[in-house]
Amino acid sequence: LRYVPAIIDGSAQWAFACAEQHGGYDLAQVATTAQRAGDGYVLNGEKSLVIAGASAELLLIAAELDGKPQIFIVAGGSPGLSFKEDEAMGLKAAETVKIRLDNVHVDDAALLGDGDFDYQEFLDLGYLAWCAVATGTAQAVLDYVVPYVNEREAFGEPISHRQGVAFIVADMAIEVDAMRIMTWRAAALADIAAKRQLVEA
Fold first, then answer.
1. Beta pairing class for 58-65 and 14-17
2. What is the spatial distance between Cα 65 and Cα 22, in angstroms, rounded to a whole number?
3. Lower Cβ count inside 10 Å, N or C end of the chain?
4. Buried b (16+ CB within 10 A) or exposed e, 61-77
């Protein structure tokens, strides 16, 4: 619990590492392993496409423990952690990296939850973060395109004066706004569900 306030209030930069090296996007298939060792755990494996992983102070790493996927909170400078650039199209500014875990030792407090951790719900909420990244990336593209079509000239006028160009840019803006609204709506519904669970508890 000592890490949770820092994650919630934003005083510590964090990143979550769930994607494995194998192909596909089934995050429920966890190849990284965690084994009990004394008063803690030892983690081994690799993660990919970890946003801001190299600069994060705290890493939320998915690993299989006793046949079940769990989340462990690992300090960014822990011995046994190594990072390698893992470029992803459209996400260069996100500093995506691959993370290698070689016998990374963590204590008991690093295990998230008290044995009743809902990994699938964690993934479902994590997808909201990916939605936000995708929306931000799309907005960045639009922010680049609008000045370009207004400044680039052809046949003596900006290409934005051509309906074939203007309509495409307008469609882009509509789709980016739709992405943003859908992400906000999903986040609001998740927040309502979380508050309802607290009340019922």
1. parallel
2. 19
3. C
4. bbbbbeeebbbbbbbbe
